[in-house]
Amino acid sequence: MELMTFICPKHPTVWDGNGFSECFEHMVLGFGVNVVSIIMIVVLGLSGRNARTSTRIAQKRHSEKVFLHLVPASGAFLPLYDITLLLKRALQGQSTVYHEWFFKCSQFSVWTTIMLFSKCDIWFFIFYHRILCFWWIAKPILGIPHLQTMFSSLKVVRNFKESCSFVLDVVFVIYLNIGRVIRESSSNRKCGSLEDSLISCNLEIEDDLGDSGNTCSYWHTLTFKSINSVMDRGVLKQLDFEDLIQLPIDLNPSTCHSTLQCCWVAEQRKNFSHPSLFRAVCCAYGRPYFRLGLLKVLNDCIGFLGPLLLNKLITFLQQGSSNFEGYIFAISLGLISIFKSFLDTQYTFHLSKLKLKLRSSIMMSIYQKCLHVSLAERSKFSEGEIQTFMSVDADRTVNLCNSFHDMWSLPLQIGVALYLLYTQVKFAFVSGIAITVLLIPVNRWIATLIASATEKMMKQKDERVRRAGELLKNIRTLKMYGWDLLFTNWLMETRSMEVKYLSTRKYLDAWCVFFWATTPTLFSLFTFGVFTLMGNTLDAATVFTCLALFNTLISPLNSFPWVINGLIDALISTRRLSSFLSCSEHSSESVQIAGSSSTLLNIDQPDFIFQRNAVVFRDACCCWSKSNEGQSSVLNQITLNLSKGFLVVVIGEVGSGKSSLLNSILGEMQLTHGSIRSFGSIAYVPQVPWILSGTIRDNILLGKDYHAERYKEVLQTCALDVDISQMLGGDLAYVGEKGVNISGGQRARLALARAVYHGSDIFLLDDVLSAVDAQVAHWILYNCIQGPLMDKSTRVICTHNIQAISSADMIVIMEKGHMKWVGSLSEFSVSPYSTISSKKELKISSPVVRQENGRSTSAKAEENIQEENGVNISGKAQESIEIEMRKEGKVELSVYKNYAAFSGWPIAIAICISAVLMQASRNGNDLWLSHWVDNIKGNHHTMYSTSFYLVILCVFCISNSLLTLVRAFSFAFGGLRAAVQVHNKLLNKLVNAPVHFFNQTPSGRILNRLSSDLYTIDDSLPFILNILLANFIGLMGIAIVLTYVQVLFLLLLLPLLYIYSKLQFYYRSTSRELRRLDSVSRSPIYASFTEALDGSSTIRAFKAEEIFMAKFTENVSVYQQTSYSEITASLWLSLRLQVCTTFSSILKLKIFTTSIYLVINDFFQLLAAFVISFVAVMAIIGSHGSFLVSFGTPGLVGLALSYAAPMVSLLSSFLSSFTETEKEMVSVERVLQYMDVPQEELQGRQFVEADWPFQGQIEFQHVTLRYMPSSPAALHDVTFTIAGGTQVGIVGRTGAGKSSVVNALFRLSPICGGFILVDGINVADVAIRDLRSHFGVVPQSPFLFEGTLRDNLDPSRVTSDAKIWHALEKCHIKEEVETAGGLDSLVKEAGSTFSVGQRQLLCLARAFLKSSKVLCLDECTASVDTQTASVLQSAISSECKGMTVITIAHRISTVLNMNNILVLDQGILVSLTNLFFPHTRDADSIRIHLQLGGSKDMCG
Questions:
Q1: What pLDDT digit, counting tens, does each position of 232-260 carry?
Q2: 3-class secondary structure per residue, 1048-1077
Q3: What secondary structure letter does DSSP report for 15?
Q4: What are phi and psi of 1093, to 5 degrees?
Q5: Residue 1085's closest CA among 1119, 1122, 1108, 1110?
Q6: Percentage of the chain surpassing pLDDT 70?
Q7: Average pLDDT for 707-714
């Protein structure tokens, strides 16, 4: 106790009543902290010296040498100067206190110790050690109380020295931490692989990094000079991806994904039942995020130094002192702005980098899950829901980074502001707090409602995106049915529900904005009112310090509702993503064992049991989802051995389980019982071929190396060589999405060629022969499937082709999910099941069987044709898919006008007027306060009573609140109206676009508009527009007030506007292009994601997951690069908006031939410092009366000073919001692009009656059809007449133009010449939807949509149930429908509830229900067994009597009962054969007719 009395004489030990005592600050927060710092440095130095032998010496960079000498030397000089003064006072006999000696000596010792140890070889180990870096962050924070005490003393020189010492501490900690981060990231690059990173990779390996070209200097990092080259090019030309800055190593998508994936796997192990993506994200990025939080604490605290210095300055002005202290305060205000601007930009930069890492890792995780999750497991989520995961939920989860820090930062800022208010107005501020507290439960209730509305809105958004994807995917079929408007209306209903919840959310947001925006005004009213009513007197220092604190409160108070909403959205999205990412993945093992029956297959039993077999089933039961396990399985008790090298043919009726058998081998189904084991690699060709958007060669290779000989042989065996030789570009011809620009047969052969080229041990072929004509099917069977490339492998083929059955080594018959029979061909021929193949079909196929050994003449002719033509291997790819266009230059004014028109011009005008009046009321409120202060006379009396001033203040407050409410709700209404109008017009334009547009435009590109861009227009754009308007009106108000107070401010304002305009031009030229590149780079991500969703089972079968993951990684990497460049450019602007040099060196203009180029000087001083210092110095000079012009009363001067501080930040915010608005407007611009797509001619000149066509007579007169102007004619001068009520078959080899006849009739593609008449009426004169609705059609690819079965059959609900059941019975699908649950049973997405054959039967039943006089059947029985096909042909003949039936056929049996046959070859009508006479009713006669017609290569 005596020691403390000795050290702290006449001072309290800890607390002096108002705060910490000076002794406590010097001894504990000063001396104690410094001693700890010295001990830590010494200990780290000793431990580093012991470890020196195992570490390499790190070389100092030039900047590190300068910094480690200059800063410690400056830091040591300040306490040394104080020690000298203390010694001088002691020698002169003046009193000195010991605690000050201890404090100053310890300060000097710390900096001296740093200088000494910086000379050591182990300097790197000491100063970049994590512990010391963290301690040095705490050190200046602990010094804040001492700094606050110094400022309360009003001793300028002493305050200046302590401020310099504090700034040196802060600069030192920032430098150390940034340097350590850069060193660690550079070290990680040296470490390389993941295995190396698991080993301790010492940071001392960086001896050569000082000269590395990849590491920028600290100054470049702080000022974002890396973007300069991009911005230079952005002024001169349109930017491209090559112009962007290189992506840092730590932002590489693969690295980011690995980081999150490791944490997600660990989270799944810990919480297997309910893993949380949020916890995994915290594990992956929690530490750097926490470090950013420390930086934010420092940044927020420094932000409050401005109001404190403002208080000191106004107090100085009130006292009228002539000392130079006022100039110190004025300059200090500017220096604080300098420091804070660097902290702001660095925090935002590192937070944005963290968000980019999180975004890429989440997107990659979703894509990887789609590649690895089985179809059965994925069935729990709709395709639209999964696409929303990628387009919306990923971004919302990333926004968690902003919201989480703001959740504690904003209350901290509010709390500190309230404390400072207490120091000014004592307990009067409690009245303001009461307003805030009352609003807390209100906002909590509103937040709960917003969360509920958001969750419901997201469900509707998922459904809308799913429906939009379904519409785009099947747009061709929907147009043929005439259902495009019907589907559009259904989509609009879903959109209406989404908008309903969106409007709920927006109006609740408007209430949030109203409550929080009016809080500062109400706060000032109640605070000043209570303060004066308590008998206190307002003065300028109190009023305008409080006003500055109120301005400080505006940002956190206004941001808080958005933060809550963002946090709620993010948490909802993380839960949604967690449920998807936790799905069990497809097993890559060749052995599948059900958990309940693992004893049925003993894996340890002798291998000889499996040596002869390629696939072994043991009592296997499978279903499509776990929810169906309790119900009947799709496959039941399958026990089967498929021998190696066998051709196994799986047959059975439609829906018997043939495709499910193949999927069970692939592991795509849920195995509920038994086991399935396969041996060797697998190649898979699905029933609906999966085609990539890319070249023919890319589709065949699928990532494998190109071998010319094998490649050519594969093309020949798959009968693709002739087709490729006729394509522009050969095998490098571009195939559109899902193969839209090639025929169905070509798609099937392309998928087959892919499987053959990969040369697997097991081939799973799902009905590959049904999509091609008989001759091509014959060629593929005997030259490909049984040819030398495949005959050594096990081939499992599901087919109804009699030739394939006749060639099988093993035949498996499936019936209703059970294996009905299995045996060899010889056993099959004598079994009772041989009746499955009709005698007629066997008769037709028998010549083929007899010709197998000797090769038929037609096959030899085919071979000669192939040898003659060869394979056209092109060296240059031919583009048929248009590259996505993007606008150049600034966003045109017409885009803004269009958006205003969408929202409604009256609403837009009302918003602007309410915003102007709201700002006027707020400025009037502040001006009235300054008038009140100026009217205070001696003895604290005013001209009018206090009540009078309070009433006027209350009027301003109420006016501001009402106008705020009007503006908030007007903006909400206008934004919602624009969102509705944009969606409706875009959807209508897309639906009315011709099929050719969809053939050339990938659906992912269109879906990007309907999901991501529309989400921006729904949510982000109105928000940023609101901010832009508020910033602009706020700037105008501040500029007017400052000009009114200080006329000389105009001298500063005009050059600032010039600089500002040049700077924003320089920045905006680049930012626009970066946003457009960002939007364009998103489309390949969605397109590849959609492709992977469609073909995931094929990708897994070929073990191509890594190839597709690498391709997706490249797309994400480009997206990362554009986003990183965009963020860097934005921060470049944010820093430089607050900076300028002297006016003579602000801008340098270089004149080029076409443009003026701006070069911004490298060295900037803060514009904020300049503006604030200018106003403050002018106020100080004016207070001395040195100018003839008056600078206003003390109240107005105080108002000007309080307005000057936020002016530059408002300038920065305005340009940032303007740029962001322009970026967001790119979404409107992109949507408007698709509002200008070509439209079909919807209107017609000829009215048709409801029962037209009456007879069904069809005439083609010299019809020529081209799908593209540069492509060969699909139909060339075709002329024929089909009499009404007759049935006509159209035959020809694949690509001959069969489907083009139907396309021309339905006007899916406009004809180039000739005309088409139906009952004498030119179809071109009929309204296009009327035309299509009067024709019936069964498309080649069966189409079912998600919904009830009744809606699928009769979406207009005009047919009775009895008639529907009758049609189903005629199509032999009634029993399956009853089993599925009747007409009200739910059909899953894309009709996956039913097999492809069942889907075709349902489409046929749909056509029967339409009862049109013209019915087009595009090979509607291709995917059904021959027995069912025969029955259906009879049904068609009986049900369609009196109807004109056009049938595109690949089987001869299909055309046996036709009246006429049209034979096409390369778009030319080769023959029109009449089969009306009885002697032409057998297959041999038909074949003779076809050969005479020149079509011997068309049918077999």
A1: 888 888 888 888 888 888 889 999 999 99
A2: CHHHHHHHHHHHHHHHHHHHHHHHHHHHHH
A3: B
A4: -60, -45
A5: 1119
A6: 77
A7: 91
